[in-house]
Amino acid sequence: MRKFTSLVLAAAMAFVAMDAVAAAPARAAATQEYVALGDSYASGVGAYPYDSASGACLRSPKSYPRLLVSALGGYTLKDVTCSGATIADVRGKQLSALSGKTALVSITVGGNDAQFSSVARGCLTESEWFCETATMYSSYYARNQMVGELAGLYSEIKRRAPRAKVVVLGYPRLVARTGSCGAISPSATKRANMNANADAVAEGTRTAAGRAGVTFVDMRPVLAGAEACSPKPFLHGVDLTRLTETFHPTGEGHAAYTLMLAAHRS
């Protein structure tokens, strides 16, 4: 699966490069303001090393916002993404980067509000009952309260950047049905519950994007077959020395996000 997916990514990156060459005269005349918002999936966690100047925000040169600008040019990037960011953090700490000049906005957020990290940690280390209960509560939040919170956030982004194309990139399913996850491998039942939770977050995000009238990109089919614990994963498994990266995209995973953003940016 990884060989096939890598070939697809290589071909798509070649297409992006051709698009960049074709757009070179327009870029030479002017650049557009691009604001990147969101949490660890947007900042590039998993594609280490990180920019030391970003501190705890863990921004990577291989994050999808930075890869897009590197591949296409034509944009002046304001990267205010930050690992651990919640919906409230984006609203209170990141939206000030937007302006009437902003032409493109990308965002991935909501996973921390749905307690993705603590739920995943519980599913890895606690009982099946604990995992089922934790994912059930997280999923209920994602399909209900989170929808309104995200829709309000997206609407505020549109208000502050009325000329911008707003692209919401969702989260993938986290784990393959079978296969080693590294230091700790959850049971089949736990994996099913974790992926059902990921589906709830993705569907809640889709509903919110539709309500606010912004573009939603579903990453579940894009990374299908390359989840953590698969033979050739594009998401990190469990490495006890790098727990922060657990279930976050690898460099190839972030490249996949870049390609989808490139495809939906206009």
UniProtKB/TrEMBL annotation:
One of the entry's Gene Ontology molecular-function terms is: triacylglycerol lipase activity
GO biological process terms, alphabetically, are:
triglyceride catabolic process
Query: What keywords were assigned to this record?
Result: Disulfide bond, Hydrolase, Signal
Q: Where is the signal peptide?
A: 1-22
Please tell me whether the keyword Ribonucleoprotein is annotated for this protein: no
Q: Where is the SGNH hydrolase-type esterase domain?
A: 36-256
Q: InterPro entries annotated for this entry? A: SEST-like, SGNH_hydro, SGNH_hydro_sf
Active site positions: S40 (nucleophile), H248
Pfam families in the record: Lipase_GDSL_2
Intrachain disulfide bonds:
C57-C82, C123-C131, C181-C229
This one is known as SGNH/GDSL hydrolase family protein
Q: Which organism is it from?
A: Micromonospora radicis
